[in-house]
Amino acid sequence: MSSMVQPAIANSRHMPLRWWALIALALAQFLVVLDASIVNIALPSLGSELHLGTNTLSWVITAYVLPFGGLLLLGGRLSDRFGHRRLFMTGVAGFALASAAAGLAASGAWLLTARAIQGASAALLAPAALALVTKLFADPQDRAKALGIWGAVAGIGSAAGVLLGGVLTASLGWSAVFYVNVPVAALVLAAVPFLIAKDSLGERITLDMTGSVAVTGGIVALVAALSGTERVGWTSPQTLILAGLAVALLASFIFLEKRTANPLMPLGIFRNKSVTGGNLAMFLIGGATTGLFFALSVYMQQVLHYDALKAGLTQLPLAGALVAIAGVVPAVVKAIGQSRTLATSLILLASGLIWLSLSPSDATFAANLLGPSILIGIGLGGAFVSGTELAVHGVTDEEAGLASGLVNTSQQIGGAIGLAVLTTAASARSDRLLDRGVSEAQALTGGFSWVFLGAAAFAVIGAFVVLAVVRHPRLSK
C-alpha cells in the first residue's frame, strides 16, 4: 500500500481519500438496506416462475432478515476482533456471491439458501462499514457530514427498494433484483484496498462465544416468532414456543454479559445516553419504515392496481425529498442538537403517515399520495441521519464495531416487530370491514390505513423517548 493511502485513517482530517472511501462504504450499505425491500414487488413473478406458494414467498424476506438481524451483534464484535476492513471486505464478497446465486436460483430451496447467506454476509459488512466511517472521520464536523450521508443512504435504500424493484422486475425480470448487487459489490471490493489502510495489529479482543450463541439464538428465535405471526397467529404453539425460547436466551445473555470478563456486548455502553436514545429511536424507525414500505407497495398494486413499474416510479418524490433534506440535517444538528433534530424529524414523519392514512380506495397519486410522500421523505431523511449520529455519538474506537452492530440490530429487530404487529392489525381491520359488507378494495384500504397510523404511533413514541432519554447531545461537544 502506498504511503499516500496508508495513513488514510490516522490522518483522516487532511486526506481527501476518506471521502472516496465513504462512497465505497456507503455503496455497500446501500445494497444491504436495499435488499430488505427490493424483493417485495418481484415476489409475484418470482413465485410464479419457481412455483412458490404464498407462505413460502414470505420466507424469501424472512430468510434474509433472520440471519441479518440475528448475527449483527456478533458481526460487529468480530470486526472489532479481526479488523474492520477485513470483515467488511469478507462480508461484501459473500454478499456478491450469494446475490449471484439467488439470481440463478432454479428452486425455492436454492433461493432461500442464497438469501440466508446474503443476510449473514450483510451482518458482517454493515457494522464493519459504519465502524470504519467513525474511524475515518475523527473530526466532529467531518463526522457530522459523513454520518449525514450515511444516514441518508440508509433512508434512500429503503425507499429505492420499491422503486428499483419495480423498474428491474418490469424490464429485466425478477432475477435482476439480485444480479444488480454483483457489479456494485465488485466495484467496492476493487476500490477499498486503495482507499482504506490495512487493519492495525492492535490489542485483540477475546470473543465471548457463549454470549454470541445466546444473543444470536435469542434474536433469531424472536424474529422467527414475529415473522410467522401473520401466517400462524399470535397464540399458535409455534409462536409461543419461539417467543419463550427467545426470552430465555436473551435473559441468559444478559446474565452472562454481567459476569464474563470479555463480554460480547459490554452493558456499560448503555450508560452513554446518546447510544441508548439513538438505538431506541432506530428500533422504532425500523418498525415504522418496514411497515410503511410493505403496506404502500401492496396498497398501490392490490387496491390502486398500479403495475410494478408504476408502483416503483411513484417512490421518486419520497426518495428525492429524503436526499434533499439529508444535506441540511448536519447544520440543523449543529444548531439545535441531535435529540431535538431527531424528535422533530419523527414528528414530521408521523404527520406524513397520518396524512397518508386518509387516502381512499380510489386515490390518485397527485391528489392523495404526492403530498404525504414528500413529507414522509423529509421526516425519514432527518430521522435516519440524526438517529445514526446519535447512536454512535461518544463511542471509543474499541466500541465502534459494537455500536455499529447495535444500530443495525435495533433497526432490523424493530422492523420485524413493527411488520408483525402492523400487518396483524391490518388483517384484523380488513376482516371486520368485510364482515360489515364493504367492498374488498375498501376493506383493504381500511387495513392499510391502520398500518400507516400504527407506523405514525411508532414515530411519535420515538420522539418522546429521545427527548426523555437524551440531554441535548451535539457533535461539537
TrEMBL record:
<dbReference type="InterPro" id="IPR004638">
    <property type="entry name" value="EmrB-like"/>
</dbReference>
<feature type="transmembrane region" description="Helical">
    <location>
        <begin position="116"/>
        <end position="137"/>
    </location>
</feature>
<keyword id="KW-0812">Transmembrane</keyword>
<dbReference type="InterPro" id="IPR020846">
    <property type="entry name" value="MFS_dom"/>
</dbReference>
<feature type="transmembrane region" description="Helical">
    <location>
        <begin position="149"/>
        <end position="170"/>
    </location>
</feature>
<dbReference type="GO" id="GO:0005886">
    <property type="term" value="C:plasma membrane"/>
</dbReference>
<feature type="transmembrane region" description="Helical">
    <location>
        <begin position="277"/>
        <end position="300"/>
    </location>
</feature>
<dbReference type="GO" id="GO:0022857">
    <property type="term" value="F:transmembrane transporter activity"/>
</dbReference>
<dbReference type="Pfam" id="PF07690">
    <property type="entry name" value="MFS_1"/>
</dbReference>
<feature type="transmembrane region" description="Helical">
    <location>
        <begin position="340"/>
        <end position="358"/>
    </location>
</feature>
<feature type="transmembrane region" description="Helical">
    <location>
        <begin position="370"/>
        <end position="392"/>
    </location>
</feature>
<feature type="transmembrane region" description="Helical">
    <location>
        <begin position="87"/>
        <end position="110"/>
    </location>
</feature>
<feature type="transmembrane region" description="Helical">
    <location>
        <begin position="413"/>
        <end position="430"/>
    </location>
</feature>
<feature type="transmembrane region" description="Helical">
    <location>
        <begin position="209"/>
        <end position="227"/>
    </location>
</feature>
<keyword id="KW-0813">Transport</keyword>
<feature type="domain" description="Major facilitator superfamily (MFS) profile">
    <location>
        <begin position="21"/>
        <end position="474"/>
    </location>
</feature>
<feature type="transmembrane region" description="Helical">
    <location>
        <begin position="450"/>
        <end position="470"/>
    </location>
</feature>
<feature type="transmembrane region" description="Helical">
    <location>
        <begin position="239"/>
        <end position="256"/>
    </location>
</feature>
<protein>
    <submittedName>
        <fullName>MFS transporter</fullName>
    </submittedName>
</protein>
<feature type="transmembrane region" description="Helical">
    <location>
        <begin position="176"/>
        <end position="197"/>
    </location>
</feature>
<feature type="transmembrane region" description="Helical">
    <location>
        <begin position="56"/>
        <end position="75"/>
    </location>
</feature>
<dbReference type="InterPro" id="IPR011701">
    <property type="entry name" value="MFS"/>
</dbReference>
<keyword id="KW-0472">Membrane</keyword>
<keyword id="KW-1133">Transmembrane helix</keyword>
<dbReference type="InterPro" id="IPR036259">
    <property type="entry name" value="MFS_trans_sf"/>
</dbReference>
<feature type="transmembrane region" description="Helical">
    <location>
        <begin position="312"/>
        <end position="333"/>
    </location>
</feature>
<keyword id="KW-1003">Cell membrane</keyword>
